[in-house]
Write a structure and sequence with these properties.
CATH topology: Jelly Rolls
Number of domains: 1
Largest sheet: 5 strands, antiparallel
Helix content: 10-25%
Number of helices: 1
Shape: globular
């Protein structure tokens, strides 16, 4: 079996979110699809594709989002996960709308980035 030795298997739908609280030390291995992972107080975003594994490094909230259908092997002793289906809208369209509005606003005036 692909997930032999793991404690859970997630079959995630496109856009499905999994909230993990205090998940430091939990290992996720993607066997199908892709995942986007973000951790509280961490500016990095982690993207895993089939064959990749990642061990969560921080305490606090970790959010995992399936990018399409995904199968994930989870290695954890005490894990409370909350799955959210169908309530999340992809961030890409919202970001694209925001950038488009920013560009339109900048067309009418001189825009200088603030550092």
């Amino acid at each position: 079996m692909v997930c032999a030795g793991y404690t859970k298997i997630w079959e995630l739908e496109p856009g499905e979110l999994v909230r993990l609280d205090d998940a430091r030390g939990i290992t996720l291995r993607v066997t199908r699809g892709a995942l986007w992972i973000t951790q509280e107080r961490d500016v990095r975003d982690i993207v895993l594709t089939a064959g990749d594994a990642y061990t969560i490094e921080r305490r606090g909230l970790t959010v995992v989002e399936a990018q399409g259908r995904a199968t994930v092997c989870v290695l954890a002793h005490h894990l409370e996960d909350i799955h959210v289906r169908g309530r999340h809208t992809p961030s890409r369209p919202r970001l694209a709308d925001w950038l488009r509005a920013l560009g339109a606003a900048a067309m009418g005036r001189g825009w200088v980035p603030y550092f």
